[in-house]
Amino acid sequence: MNKFDSLLADSAIGSSFYVSPHILGMDGEGFHKLVETWVAAGGGDGFTVSDAGKESASGGHQYVIVKITRTK
After folding, report:
1. Which has the closest alpha carbon to 20: 68, 69, 70, 64?
2. What is the per-residue pLDDT across 40-68, written as a single tens digit (0 to 9) for each?
């Protein structure tokens, strides 16, 4: 089970939590690509995404944090 799956499994249905590259042990680019797919799909199996935040200070505009809500 990867870090995200573990966090999701440990959360109660209906609860929300934030994830970042640091929390998931990912690099920024990999996290950005992952969040892009989640945002496009409206979430994933058992969760929705919202409040996806992009870093803009460096001009890269990459996702750096996202709110996850467990749905099942």
Report:
1. 64
2. 999 999 999 999 999 877 677 899 999 99
Classify residue 8 as exposed, middle or buried by CB count within 10 Å of its CB (0-12, 13-18, 19+): buried
Nearest to 52 by CA among 24, 18, 21, 23: 18
d(CA 25, CA 19): 10
The C-alpha R_g of the chain, in whole angstroms, comes to: 12
State the amino acid at position 39 in one-letter form: V
Exposure on the CB side of residue 71, measured as CA atoms within 13 A: 11
